[in-house]
Amino acid sequence: MSDTIFLNGMRFYSYHGALPAENDIGQIFIVDVTMKVDLSMAGQSDEVTDTVHYGEVFEEVKAIMEGKPVNLLEHLAERIAKRINSHYNRVMETKVRITKENPPIPGHYDGVGVEIVRENL
């Protein structure tokens, strides 16, 4: 089964990071979430109750990203995946990608970040 629901390019201004400057100044974080979901029932019924409401997922991600600052993107990604997998039983797998476009690292790049995949067991 290869059905997915995705939320790409969600942007949040937050104060996460292991360096003091990141906690003081903050920065924009870009979050992408992809969920494996069987969409066949929703495709037939046209009912939102037969799918995962991505507006609700956005609010879940927003609450975590704009919540209490943490040191690691890995921790944020894990919290997002756990929240989605525990709140939406239709989700079979969640992929979370978090990108910092402008971390305090000298060099030229489009961004740095993490990506995790967690099955909903």
UniProtKB/TrEMBL annotation:
Keyword annotations from UniProtKB, A to Z: Folate biosynthesis, Lyase
Pathway annotation: Cofactor biosynthesis; tetrahydrofolate biosynthesis; 2-amino-4-hydroxy-6-hydroxymethyl-7,8-dihydropteridine diphosphate from 7,8-dihydroneopterin triphosphate: step 3/4
UniProt-listed SUPFAM superfamilies: Tetrahydrobiopterin biosynthesis enzymes-like
Domain of life of the source: Bacteria
GO molecular function terms listed in the Swiss-Prot or TrEMBL record: dihydroneopterin aldolase activity
Catalytic reaction(s) noted: 7,8-dihydroneopterin = 6-hydroxymethyl-7,8-dihydropterin + glycolaldehyde; 7,8-dihydroneopterin = 7,8-dihydromonapterin
Protein task: Catalyzes the conversion of 7,8-dihydroneopterin to 6-hydroxymethyl-7,8-dihydropterin. Can also catalyze the epimerization of carbon 2' of dihydroneopterin to dihydromonapterin.
Assigned protein family: Belongs to the DHNA family.
SUBUNIT field: Homooctamer. Four molecules assemble into a ring, and two rings come together to give a cylinder with a hole of at least 13 a diameter.
Protein name: 7,8-dihydroneopterin aldolase
Gene expressing this chain: folB
